[in-house]
Amino acid sequence: MRLTTLPFNTSIPFTSVLAGFVAVLVGYASSAAIIWQAASAAGATPGQIAGWMTALGLGMGVSTLALTLWYRVPVLTAWSTPGAALLATSLQGVSLNEAVGVFIFANGLIVVCGVTGLFARLMKVIPHTLAAAMLAGILLRFGLQAFSNLGGHFALCGSMLLAWLVCKALAPRYAIVATLMIGALVAIVSGDVVTQSISLAIVTPTFIAPAFNGTTLLSIGIPFFLATMASQNAPGFATMQAAGYRVPVSPLIIFTGALALLLSPFGVYSICIAAITAAICQSPDAHPDAGKRWLAAAAAGVFYVLAGMFGGAITAVLAALPLSWIQTLAGLALLGTISGSLQQALAKESDRDAAIVTFLVTASGVTLLGIGSAFWGLAIGGVCYGVLTLARRT
């Protein structure tokens, strides 16, 4: 099944469209609630939060489409989930205007980081094996969730796993299609889909004048900037490298940072390079030809725009879907990427010890100094890599 929707006469396989849809679904399902908590902590009204979701969806859609179509590689953008978690715990007692000031400050720092090229130089020195190990560690949690839900939701998750296995053996390209459809059918029949009133009205984002407080910028803005760069952008570029896609780092950082800076007064706290959702569009399930997997990312960009246009309905839609269905679908969609990343991480014998340390620290979920495990996995694994490499040379 093919859909022809691009103006330059490129046909998009249905599996690529589905991969883009699943990527956006996983992105929203995994962290939209955290963003609502962060906005609520700053005192935003439900209408303002809906406007934030609209602006975020449109920002991610425009940036994903622009970068993917320009470079012809699957470049997905996303909001910073670690950043949202940090904001949710840090914005209590901070005014909405000061929160917007934090967004502008942090996004400005990201643009400076891209212009100076500091981040690009860092990404060039990261060994490919460690980048793959970090990606595998990030995705491990999602792979485990595909099976951990069997205990409490055996009928739903078991049927999805069976559908995936049968179709993987008979028609591998449509394994996730079968998984999604069978899972949805079982959820509907078993009454796991909660129907409620969902408004499809488009909510227009409202401008919020920023206020800059020195103490707030230092205590929240700096940690937020570090968490965004270390726990979101770094894994995002590592994911692309592990998938075999080489793109210039600084232009992407400048573009996403500048767009987020422009939209900050409308609630766009960050626009970053995606990691987990990008892996879905960069996997063989999205397209057998690695040179055409950008089609899945382009589809994701369109779905981002649609999600942004109906930002007010996102929470209600997510609440209607069984969490176990979303987790199982995401985990099965990422199995190929997880196995491929592990293979790359352990392929070079001399790097295995450092790679396995990177993998385990990342998978541990440890947070130190407000920075997530992806950064620490790469940092500790990098130290191991350097020490062991030096030892072999002496």
From TrEMBL:
Q: Which organism is it from?
A: Kosakonia oryzendophytica
- What cellular component terms from Gene Ontology apply here? plasma membrane
Does this UniProt record's set of keywords contain Transcription?
no
Per the UniProt record, which residue ranges are transmembrane?
12-37, 49-71, 99-120, 150-167, 174-195, 207-231, 252-276, 296-321, 328-346, 366-388
Question: What is the designated name of this protein?
Answer: Benzoate membrane transport protein
- Record's keyword terms, sorted: Membrane, Transmembrane, Transmembrane helix
Q: Molecular function terms in GO for this entry?
A: benzoate transmembrane transporter activity
